[in-house]
Design goal:
The structure holds 2 protein chains of 2 kinds. Chain A has helices at about 25-35, 40-45, 50-60, 65-70, 80-90, 90-105, 105-115, 120, 130-145, 150-160, 165-170, 175-195, 205-230, 240-250, 260-280. By secondary structure, chain A is mainly alpha-helical. By secondary structure, chain B is α/β, with parallel strands linked by helices. In chain B, strands 6-7-8-3-9-10 form a 6-stranded mixed beta sheet, with helices on both faces. Chain B has a 4-stranded antiparallel beta sheet with strand order 2-1-4-5, covered by helices on one side. The longest helix of chain B has 17 residues, at about 165-180. Classes of the chains: A mainly alpha, B alpha/beta. Chains A and B meet through helix 1, helix 7 and helix 8 of A and helix 2, strand 6, helix 3, helix 4 and helix 5 of B.
Chain lengths: ~290, ~300
Amino acid sequence: MTIREKGYAHWEGQLKERRFPWAPITWLGIRLAFKRKYFKFIIFSSLVPALVFLVGIYISERIEDFQNMFRGNRQFFEVNPAYFKTYLCSDFLLFMMVMILVVSGAGLISDDLKHNSLQLYFARPLRKSGYLLGKANVIVFFLLLLTLIPGLAFIIFKLLFAGNFQFLASFPWLPLAVVGYSLFVTGFFCSYTLLLSSLSKNRRYVSILIFTVYIFSDILFAFFYDNYKKPAFALISLKANLQQVGSWFFRLKPAYAVPWYWSLLILLGFGIVAFIVLNRKVRGVEVVR
Amino acid sequence: MIAEISDLRFSYGDIKALDGITLSLPDGAVGLLGPNGAGKSTLLRILLGFLSPQHGQGRVLGFDIRLEQPRIRRYVGYMPEDDCLIPGMDAVTFTAHFGELSGMPRQEAMKRAHDVLFYVGLGESRYRLLETYSAGMKQRLKLAQAIVHDPKLLFLDEPTSNLDPQGRKEVLELIKDISSKKDIQVLICSHILSDIESVCSDVVILNKGRLAAQGKLSELREVHYRLYEIRTKGEGPGFSERIKGLGCRVQETEDKLLRVYVPADLDIREIFRAAEETNTQVRHFVRSQTSLEDLFARAVGVD
């Protein structure tokens, strides 16, 4: 291999301050996620419920045409806030979100820690907040694709299929609830993933951790709830907490008789811990005192 | 002027990493030397803005090291010592990515990435996954990402580590080319003294967090002492001791050659007098060029 196959030339352009210095990190993260094994399959599988619910919205407007098929199950096709909550807080959707985090989110920080690339990032005009925002936005992109986009699409298609604005007049706060809950669940999963990703240099451990913490918290809740029948055990489960807060967003009675704000506090607590840990872990140099 | 710093102090807990460093780094290629724990890396990290000094102030390329860190990083290229990569990427995407982060438009960064990869000798393998790169190739890649945005100043931390002799020669040639012909200032932090000697005109030596020596290499060699190589026959007792008594430092090599560091103000004839008085025949007396190794050893107080 010879060096200087080509001479060095100065670059004629001018370096500019980016409005969104995190943007290259986000786009790179998204591109790399699509290169991962099974990721495309997971993301498309995650969109299947959205398709099913969309068909549900269509049927709800043409229920007379389908009455022979569904007979007594008409209530399933009643499109109301509960319909949206069922989609956005469904076990399957939350599970698929976790799977996306396992595949695309686990290595976001741990890979940089393992391969010492943090110092390359911070040798650029990039602040810690910019770096974290760039990484978090990779998760934001995929999770909003599964929550916010279908949620808003449901409302738009409901209006289109109905041909009037009666639905929106009945639930004028619903678009806000969809936006609010989508951002909340995405924000939580961002802090959850980045926190765990910063704890290890090994992407596999982080993947296992992301999956296990979510599943194990739910198993633990199921175990205690089945044995002691106390709804307060719902606070152990990440899934149940997200569903409790979801109920509040959609103005529905929570599934468990525990105030929704306790769940909110627990999830926000995760966010605060994540902020503190990330602030300590993510730095240009490892300072050994 | 690359950088000016004054009374810079930094401690890791009770350990003083930098203890009142004041220096100015001139244009060109400057070598930063010092034994382990001398404070080189800490100084480099402060100049880059990774660490904020606890005391003192400084400017890099005219920008304040406390207040204008992002601006410093925009115009500085940094090649770290450790292997750094992002798995799953090829060299072009990797290099262009860091060009973009420095403020280059995406397409320009991509174009420039190709150019610098050819420049560092990775043209043929620029589409290979980084995980498959050898240690030497990773070293070149680090250099490519450091120069992709055409920096005004390059910080190179151990640029030739992990390279075979040929690769080392080529990278040094490249650094020489960049620093001498391309109007890019270079600060090289290295343990390999011969590398510094072959590339740098100026040198800064740190020891235990303090400045041990600084200046033009040629001047530093001259000012402090002169080095002579002496071969003797029938050395009478105490020849070495006698010349040590005159203020010289004496090193004996394996083949019985005496390397004598003579203070600037000592008359050379005193050495011959000492030989005569100790019945020693001087068979070989040659003035030798002091190496950076000698200078380094003297500055940090080791043989």
